[in-house]
Design brief:
9 strands, five-stranded parallel beta sheet, 5 helices, alpha/beta
Length: 191
């Protein structure tokens, strides 16, 4: 399997990847070994899938049918970091998987730092409610580490932080997130 990714793993690393079948909406986990490292500029990772589940064949066949019909592709593949609790990330997984973006997930400061170590992001999306006290430190850190990245909060309510470019309601869907990432919002200056 070839994966476009912003992550780097050494050859031989065993990873688990969860894929969502866009046709059925079911999640399929596959385990594989890294057989080609992701390097710039393509960031394409090679994964040798080990003993795939039965659903894997249906997913591959469905993808092959879609590629033959020539579905249109997005002109820009965004690189996005999603920060939030595990349960909120799982709830939003289908949305991000169907986006076609390079999506990294993080739950705490350490995993955020690891995720963005060698990656330029287009956006960071906090899967938190607007008034959550974790929003400020996350967005402050992202403003310093990734000043060009859009800072978006996807949840209930709107906070009052000037560190956030846009608040998006949790149920708004992918189109609202795309608008938040691409909107003509002046980039905040770095302190």
């Amino acid at each position: 399997m070839s994966l476009d990714t912003a992550a780097w793993f050494p050859l031989g690393t065993r990873v688990a990847v969860t894929l969502v079948d866009p046709a059925s909406g079911t999640a399929i986990e596959v385990i594989g070994d890294i057989v080609r490292e992701a390097i710039a500029p393509t960031w394409s990772l090679g994964l040798l899938v080990i003993e795939p589940p039965m659903e894997w064949s249906a997913l591959v066949a469905s993808a092959a049918r879609r590629s033959v019909t020539g579905l249109e592709k997005s002109t820009k593949r965004f690189r996005v970091l999603v920060v939030g609790d595990d349960h909120r990330q799982r709830g939003a997984m289908a949305l991000y998987v169907t986006s076609g973006w390079d999506v990294l997930f993080a739950t705490d400061g350490e995993s955020v730092a690891e995720a963005i170590e060698n990656v330029d992001l287009d956006a960071v999306i906090a899967e938190l409610d607007g008034e959550d006290p974790r929003v400020e430190p996350i967005m402050e850190g992202m403003r310093k580490l990734q000043p060009k990245a859009r800072r978006i909060v996807r949840g209930k309510g709107k906070g009052s932080s000037d560190l956030v470019h846009r608040f998006v309601e949790r149920d708004s869907g992918l189109e609202a997130l795309l608008d938040a990432i691409t909107a003509d919002i002046p980039a905040a200056s770095t302190p």
